[in-house]
Description:
Largest sheet: 4 strands, mixed
Bound molecules: acetoacetyl-coenzyme A
CATH topology of the largest domain: Butyryl-CoA Dehydrogenase, subunit A, domain 3
Strand content: 5-15%
Strand order of the largest sheet: 1-4-5-8
CATH class of the largest domain: Mainly Alpha
Amino acid sequence: xxxxxxxxxxxxxxxxxxxxxxxxxxxxxxxxxxxxxxxxxxxxxxxxxxxxxxxxxxxxxxxxxxxxxxxxxxxxxxxxxxxxxxxxxxxxxxxxxxxxxxxxxxxxxxxxxxxxxxxxxxxxxxxxxxxxxxxxxxxxxxxxxxxxxxxxxxxxxxxxxxxxxxxxxxxxxxxxxxxxxxxxxxxxxxxxxxxxxxxxxxxxxxxxxxxxxxxxxxxxxxxxxxxxxxxxxxxxxxxxxxxxxxxxxxxxxxxxxxxxxxxxxxxxxxxxxxxxxxxxxxxxxxxxxxxxxxxxxxxxxxxxxxxxxxxxxxxxxxxxxxxxxxxxxxxxxxxxxxxxxxxxxxxxxxxxxxxxxxxxxxxxxxxxxxxxxxxxxxxxxxxxxxxxxxxxxx
Length: 394
Ligand code: CAA
């Protein structure tokens, strides 16, 4: 007889899922929670309204080693688990979603170089990212290559022991503040995505130009810019991984990146949920707190139920990564589900707060604006469904 437990364990490779944090990891969670709920939360409104880069937040995270939470201690990282990383991003996002995406993207760049780079490359660049000496930016998207990232047009022409990069990237998180740009460019366009390689371009390289931050609906502290490459000449030794493997490197990086975005969404959703619970207890109408009305309490119960499910999916993807299991589909499921749940939660938080949810006096409307980006970046949720379906029918 096949019981449900056995067949599920077979599905996950007979390993028991365990989302517990070690004592050290619990300490990381508590430390980040304290920092984010006191300092980051207090700064978030000004960061949003004035589109300020959260410099102090990033500096404080760097001091705690949290810009390298899952990077190897050998290269200056904290060496924590992916589950801890997810928890850290969630705590940061609860207070300041901009700070969370900045952290997630720089980590993704550090991880790609750590996974694919030579010893020299890791010592040169991963250490800088892990310690927060500089930030990383992930240059994949282009004006005509968004969802269809493999059709990117930026070229990399090999000239002896140098590479010349030409093209344009768009919607690049951290571009205005990064020292290390991980650039996907095509060495042999006739091969399509199989010609794409990954290169590190350093900030002050002649020909590299960063555009002005885009004007966006939310995540205003995370400056997203176009990046232009005009005959940018770099040493060939800046190529990360094998020639032609750049597209795979980018997609593999996104397997972890999407766990980060799911975690960010959970944090935003959690903030909207907690605010709703408190408000429903305090706000009185018709002579009683509004949570005494079933329409309100059921709506909040729904938030709790869906956030919990989203958190479990996200933790599972993180746990699989920690176990060295392939987690492409699980990352996409977590990303799509968590961001959609959190979007619904922020919308319902506005309904719970009524007029005050629409007001810029409270952070509720900011949660709803910030969450929109998570539905789109690191692959739209339609693309996540495409990835899930591809993995199901492979
Ligand atoms: N890991 C490693 N390699 C992978 C992979 C993975 N998860 N998924 C696919 N690949 C490999 C395949 O094996 C294949 O390799 P070969 O050609 O050598 O056999 C190659 O990649 C192409 O695979 P597909 O045929 O599946 O590629 P596709 O073009 O049909 O579809 C896609 C790919 C899923 C649509 C992909 O383009 C995609 O994810 N698009 C969305 C782009 C995206 O997420 N952009 C995010 C930008 S970064 C960002 O947003 C950061 C930020 O600012 C917050």
